[in-house]
Write a structure and sequence with these properties.
By secondary structure, the chain is an alpha+beta fold. The protein has one domain: Helicase, Ruva Protein, domain 3. It contains 1 helix and 2 strands, in the order αββ. It has a two-stranded antiparallel sheet with strand order 1-2. The longest helix has 21 residues. The protein is elongated.
Length: 68
């Protein structure tokens, strides 16, 4: 939020920061094949950097629940 905050400009800088820091890296990862349909994307922040991880879709019957 600190990178996108500018009271005089309203929400525009925040929108650009979200695009640059989140949307662009996810788009690049989709195009490269790192993220695929069905993956969940987990974003974490540490030391001012964002880390993007993929979670594979759970296989049927292995989600820890009961099968229907």
């Amino acid at each position: 939020v600190a990178e996108g905050y500018e009271p005089a400009m309203g929400a525009r800088p925040l929108r650009r920061a979200i695009q640059r820091l989140i949307e662009d890296p996810i788009s690049e990862a989709l195009l490269s094949g790192y993220f695929k349909a069905g993956n969940k994307i987990v974003i974490s922040a540490k030391d001012g950097k964002l880390d993007f991880r993929r979670l594979e879709p759970a296989k049927i019957g292995t989600a820890g629940g009961h099968e229907a």
